[in-house]
Amino acid sequence: MKTSPYRPDQSNLAYSVGVTLDRFIKLKQSDFPFASGELSQLLRDIALAAKIVNRETNRAGLSNIGGAFGQTNVQGEEQQKLDVIANIRFMRALSKGGEVCAIVSEEEDEVIDLQNNSGKYVVAIDPLDGSSNIDVNISIGTIFSIYRRKTPVGSPVTTADIMQPGNQQVAAGYVLYGSSTMLVYTTGFGTNGFTYESSLGEFFLSHPNMQAPENGAMYSINEGLEYEWPAGVQSYVKSCKERKFQSRYIGSLVADFHRNLLKGGIYLYPATLKNPSGKLRLLYEANALAFIIEQAGGKASDGSRRIMDIQPESLHQRTPLLIGSVELVEDAEEMIRNAESEITGINH
């Protein structure tokens, strides 16, 4: 094609801003032959709520919405003001869209039955992970899981709709509110990341088909609890130090996970003497991140089992979590198995 002598070449005057989240969702809608647009709309609802929470987070230091709210949640953890605000924002977005019949939230004691029996989906969500870091301006996040209900549409919600293992998820994702705000999600066809462009008010595809490195030289764990870890975890962390791995621990699950997803590494929150069942919640933290990491080529385990194969027995069930690059997780599992075998052998 020749450039008209009367019309100079304009190709370099404006760069392409890329594919928006909304357009990407529409392009991928055909991946779900059973869906008729509800899942796509649900993902858009979550993205809208994330934009609002992003705004609230960015103005927290100016509007007196940082700090403690003065109450504790069902976990016995002190709620921050932004915990409450984020919960309200996501509850509104999920309830008004019409696609959801029930919600499980870290900030709510019981299942929120929306009395919308025509809704096809159940959402499990941690509205604001790492909220204790808000006051010191460290990255925080939102984690969500989406399940297709088991009971027929039109009938009341039952326990069977809620207590589904992670391998039944139809979508999962997280939002990272940091130096830039990102939404990362999967629908079982790879993991894709979108960065928020605040001046346009849109998420744009920035990290297509994300792949976790198979190996890495980074580990993330709260080393202040070292003397409460099981012997196998102690051995594994010692081996990381002997191999001169880098220790990186922010204290915000989403931020630690995101870094290891991009650069290669392992995040560990094992059982401890204080929390023998682990601390992280299965339904709305571990399952979502497990789905995402597996779709990116990584692995998630409780030390002996695949996270997504665990059948939940209670709403706020906790689990140990080892998640990240597949070779690192498998190394940790092997050391945990060996340590348990030694203990069993001594007991016999």
UniProtKB/TrEMBL annotation:
Coarse class of the protein's main subcellular location: cytoplasm
Name where it's found.
Cytoplasm
Q: Name one Pfam family in it.
A: FBPase
Cofactor(s) in the UniProt record: Mg(2+)
Q: Which residues form the Fructose-1-6-bisphosphatase class I N-terminal domain?
A: 20-208
- Pathway, according to UniProt? Carbohydrate biosynthesis
User: Which reaction equation describes what this protein catalyses?
Assistant: beta-D-fructose 1,6-bisphosphate + H2O = beta-D-fructose 6-phosphate + phosphate
State the superkingdom.
Bacteria
**Enzyme Commission no:** 3.1.3.11
Q: Which residues bind Mg(2+) 1?
A: E106, D126, L128
Record: residues binding substrate:
D129, G130, S131, S132, N222, Y249, Y267, L268, Y269, K279
What range(s) does the Fructose-1-6-bisphosphatase class 1 C-terminal domain occupy? Answer: 213-336
By its UniProt entry, which CDD domains does this protein fall under? FBPase (cd00354)
> Which keywords does UniProt give here?
Carbohydrate metabolism, Cytoplasm, Hydrolase, Magnesium, Metal-binding
Query: What quaternary arrangement does the UniProt entry report?
Result: Homotetramer.
**Entries under NCBIfam families matching the protein:** PRK09293.1-1
- So what family is this one in? Belongs to the FBPase class 1 family.
Q: What is this protein called?
A: Fructose-1,6-bisphosphatase class 1
Question: Which species expresses this protein natively?
Answer: Algoriphagus jejuensis
Originating gene = fbp
